[in-house]
Design brief:
The chain is mainly alpha-helical. It folds into 2 domains: 58 residues; 50 residues, no CATH class. Helices cover 45% and strands 7% of the residues. The protein is built from 4 helices and 2 strands; from the N terminus they run αααββα. It has a two-stranded antiparallel sheet. A hairpin with a 5-residue loop joins strand 1 and strand 2. Helix 1 crosses helix 3.
Length: 116
């Protein structure tokens, strides 16, 4: 076999590497062709990665951007029982965090939610 026939075999990228690469592409503002050229990546590979990420986002809602609505300001004295932060999920479930919440409890809650 001559040297011209030997092709460099690239290892497979991990899921984290693929995610990072797609995020870099999306943040770069470059076109696909230019991004692929600067990262020594084939256009079809980047397209496949982007489609895979989009499909995963549609299936599980993971990594998707969502609309956020800011409500009007609340009285400074905290009257009226308003919370410091309210997250309304697509299932209409709500997560409310009071102004003086316990950060460690919120961290434990987030860890449990991420496992689900």
């Amino acid at each position: 076999m001559s040297e011209e026939q030997v092709h460099q075999v690239r290892r497979r990228r991990s899921g984290a590497e693929v995610e990072k690469l797609v995020a870099e592409y999306e943040a770069s503002g470059l076109g696909r062709t230019e991004f692929c050229r600067t990262h020594a990546l084939s256009l079809s590979t980047l397209s496949r990665y982007c489609k895979r990420r989009q499909a995963q986002g549609e299936a599980g809602g993971v990594g998707r951007w969502v609309a956020v609505e800011l409500s009007g300001s609340h009285p400074a004295n905290g009257s009226g029982g308003s919370s410091g932060l309210t997250v309304v999920l697509s299932s209409e479930r709500r997560i409310e965090v009071g102004r003086s919440f316990d950060a460690s409890t919120l961290q434990r809650l987030m860890a449990l939610l991420e496992q689900a």
